[in-house]
């Protein structure tokens, strides 16, 4: 059996992206509904697919337009 290329060799020509620089869910950052519960702990950041309105338990994630800002959230309640 021949050994294939290593992961670093396969990705050598790829340009890696720093995802922390992407402005995702920008309108959610100062919304009172932001955050979700993970393992019994409340995480109150706005950079997630779920919040108090769009709950994972209900199977409703935020619409994709909220992610990139092309749609304004009708439930947004600024602090």
Structure, described:
There is one protein chain. The protein is mostly loops. 11% of the residues lie in helices and 8% in strands. The chain is built from two helices and two strands; from the N terminus they run αββα. It has helices at 7-10, 64-68, and strands at residues 36-38, 41-43. A two-stranded antiparallel ribbon has the order 1-2. The longest helix has 5 residues, at 64-68. It is elongated. The mean pLDDT is 84.
What are the main properties of this structure?
elongated, two-stranded antiparallel sheet, 79 residues, little secondary structure
Determine the fraction of residues in helical runs and give it as a percent range: 10-25%
The overall pLDDT average reads 84
Order of strands in the sheet with most strands: 1-2
Helix tally equals 2
What's the count of strands? 2
List the helices and strands and how they pair.
Blueprint lengths: L6 H4 L25 E3 L2 E3 L20 H5 L11
Antiparallel strand pairs: 1-2
Write a compact overview of the structure shown.
The chain is largely without helices or strands. The protein has helices at 7-10, 64-68; strands at residues 36-38, 41-43.
């Amino acid at each position: 059996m021949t050994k294939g290329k290593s992961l670093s060799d396969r990705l050598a020509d790829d340009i890696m992206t720093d995802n922390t620089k992407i402005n995702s869910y920008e309108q959610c950052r100062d919304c009172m509904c932001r955050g979700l519960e993970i393992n019994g702990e409340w995480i109150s950041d706005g950079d997630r697919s779920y919040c108090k309105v769009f709950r994972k338990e209900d199977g409703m994630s935020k619409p994709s337009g909220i992610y990139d800002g092309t749609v304004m959230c009708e439930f947004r309640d600024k602090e």
